[in-house]
Amino acid sequence: MSTNLSKDMNADMGADMTPTPQANAGKVARTTTPVNTMKWLIRRELWEHKGAFFWAPLVVAVTLTLLLGGGFLYGIMHAGSFELQFGEHQVAVNGVPHALRAQLASSVASSYLVVAAPLFLVLPVVVFFYCLAALYDDRRDRSILFWKSLPLSDRDTVLSKVIVALLVAPLVVIGTGVATSLVLLALGLIAAAFNGINLIVPVLSDMRLYLSPLYLLSFLPLYIVWGLPTVGWLLLVSSWARSKVFLWAVGAPVVLLAILSWFDFLMGRFSGVSLGAKWFGNEIVARVLGGVVPGIWFGEVDKGALAQMQGGIDAGLLLGISYSTLASPGVWIAAAAGCAMIAGAVRLRRWRDEG
Amino acid sequence: MSAVLSARGLTKRYGKQIAVDAIDFDIPAGRIVGLIGPNGSGKTTTLKAALGLIPFEGELSVLGFDPRTERDALMQDVCFIADVAILPRWLRVMDAIDFVAGVHPRFDRSKAERYIANTKLTPTMKVKQMSKGMIVQLHLALVMAIDARLLVLDEPTLGLDIIYRKTFYQNLLEDYFDEEKTIIITTHQVEEVEHILTDLLFIRDGKLVLSATMEEIGERYVEVMVASDKVAAASALQPIDQRVVFGKSVMLFDARRAGGLSRAQLAALGEVRNPSVADLFVATMKGTYA
Questions:
Q1: Residue range A231-279, pLDDT digits in tens
Q2: Which of A63, A334, B157, B289 could form a disulfide with A287 if both were Cys (CB 3.0 to 4.6 A apart)?
């Protein structure tokens, strides 16, 4: 009777309310604890790739600090003797024209983050190789079977890797970069002061000193949009290849580009026929392999606008012209293709038989 | 009670080769089933289909879910050890526990920690520092602390020494199994699991050749140490297998073969006993490697 009743109710309430009868059969009170799958999936990635995400930026940051900071300290130590022996020079240094000093302070306050630039070269390397390994390594050592024995959907697993590549890794590098820059800025200001150019007050009172990290952070959404095609492509290959992921990921587009270029080169001599090697190189190869390089978008901006900058970085202008690249449909088509490739990677991971 | 696992016409092809050939079976709740067959017979393929790891043809219902389309829901109630030593090398013991506790709603952290306390594993140890036996201990600690309704073990003790193998099954039986749970085991080491099994499924060339409970097998198959003067009479009853042990003929009879045989009839031939699963397996699979 109860079965009939529930059937009627289900008919009224619509199919989506129907519980699966077998699934509930024999179900007893079983304790469950709340889960936060995405948080743990991301932590999992960071455990596995601690070296790439933490140690690599940290080593670069420490190296930068030691080298540049050492240079500043050297300046400080030599400042004393410099003043003693060549008193008239000190006068000359102290006598830096007011306008020049202001300009110097302005440049320092607006551009001090530039010293951390090497960190932003580490980022694409780390992200590139992370993505290549992300869906391949656990298939190679068969530990995928352990992850798949847990209630983790393939979609969440792949998404956690996308989040790590496009959000966590850049945030770590931005954080490390800002910290390194601030340390070096402090050392530099002290060194300059010892050398008679005291910029501490004008730099500290410049708003751009505090806004620069925010400007840097505001490049992140743009980085994600530009990074999607590369992350998508690399994850797709990582999920698909049985071996030699790097060769497939880099070799396939590059060889195709070489063939197209050769065709265009040869045919260009005899007839006007072209397979569009240049287009393929710019729109496909560059986007799927170089998208995770910070500032890749500057390839599409008007160089004249950049040349206008004087006296340090005009972050607002830089941000404006960077984001203006989003006006071109190519960026969005590539980002959409990136999302499609991520979906493809999820599907491949779901059904690939790991033997 | 409805079946935990129910297959109808389950088929898996790899290209032209048929790995699993239209098999039907039902596994009720609260059983420990041995899925036994030679290498390449389709055991692992069957389990992979049930766990939603590969596409297949036919009908398969696991806890009421279709593993092809409802895998994510299914994995809330199913756990498996697919192979020995598949934990990632960089994983630490404490991270493994944290992770499973973080993602599995039915994980009992204290149970896993209690189990690990009885081993030589330490919280900061990484998998790459462990012996094969220790990796299995960690894996078992994680799996046993999950209150899953179906546990699938595919060659869980392969390559382990005898002490690890014994304790593995002992722990499984003492600390894990209850009438709400179902365990499916495939293994080559039949002798080690036969005393814990409640059901047997023999698979050969992608087909089920035997599906019975251990009680049915005890009733159906009889091994007789035939007295030397009765060998001719015994052979006339068409034993399904015979071998010679210390000069005595040991014959295996199927009591349900055409015509039927009674235990009394067989007892007249010599000493009667229940065959081991291993002997039954060898007799059933005769000719597989020939």
A1: 999 999 999 999 999 999 999 999 999 999 988 888 887 777 778 888 8
A2: A334
- Whether residue A110 contacts residue A29, with contact meaning beta carbons closer than 8 Å, is answered with no
Cβ atoms within 10 Å of B52's Cβ, excluding its own:
24
Asked if the B3-205 domain carries CATH number 3.40.50.2000, the reply is: no
pLDDT at position B282, please?
Answer: 84
Provide the 10 A C-beta neighbour count for residue A163.
Answer: 16
User: Model ipTM?
Assistant: 0.90
Structural contact between residues B109 and B145, judged by C-beta atoms closer than 8 angstroms: yes
Three-state DSSP at A49 gives coil
pLDDT in tens, A270-291: 777 778 888 888 888 889 999 9
Higher-pLDDT residue of A351, A195: A351
Instruction: Kindly state whether residue A39 falls inside one of the protein's structural domains.
Output: no
Domain of residue A89, residue span: 48-127+161-211
Give the closest-approach CA distance of A147 to chain B in angstroms: 9
Residue B116 has pLDDT above 70, yes or no: yes
- Interface residues of A toward B, Cβ cutoff 8 Å, are 20-26, 28, 30-37, 39-41, 43-44, 47-48, 138, 141-143, 145-146, 148-153, 350-351, 353-354
What pTM did the predictor assign?
Answer: 0.86
Amino acid letter for position A2:
S
pLDDT tens-digit profile of A78-129?
755 434 334 444 444 455 677 778 888 888 888 888 889 999 999 999 999 9
Please name the member of A33, A37, A41 whose beta carbon is closest to the beta carbon of B107: A33
Pick from A44, A143, A150: CB nearest B86: A143
Residue B98 touches chain A, beta carbons under 8 Å: yes
What would the two tokens of residue B101 be? 């506790």
Number of domains forming the structure of chain A: 1
Residues of chain A found within 8 Å of residue B13, distances taken between Cβ atoms? none
Quickly list DSSP for A298-323: GGGS-HHHHHT--SS--HHHHHHHHH
> 3-state DSSP call for residue A213?
helix
Q: Where is average pLDDT lowest: A11-15, A160-164, A167-171, B257-261?
A: A11-15
CB within 8 Å: A151 and B103: yes
Which residues in chain B touch residue A350, judged by CB atoms under 8 angstroms apart?
71
| Residue A229 burial by Cβ neighbours in a 10 Å radius (0-12, 13-18, 19+) | buried
What percentage of residues in chain A have a pLDDT greater than 90? Answer: 47
Nearest CA in chain A to B74: A151
Query: What stretches of A14-150 show up as alpha helix (H) in DSSP?
Result: 21-24, 37-48, 50, 56-85, 87-94, 98-111, 117-134, 137-140, 144-147
Q: Exposed, middle or buried: residue A145 (CB in 10 Å: 0-12, 13-18, 19+)? A: buried
Domain boundaries along the sequence of chain B: 3-205, 216-284
Which residues, including other chains, have CB under 8 Å from residue A167's CB and lie 6 or more apart? Answer: A220, A224
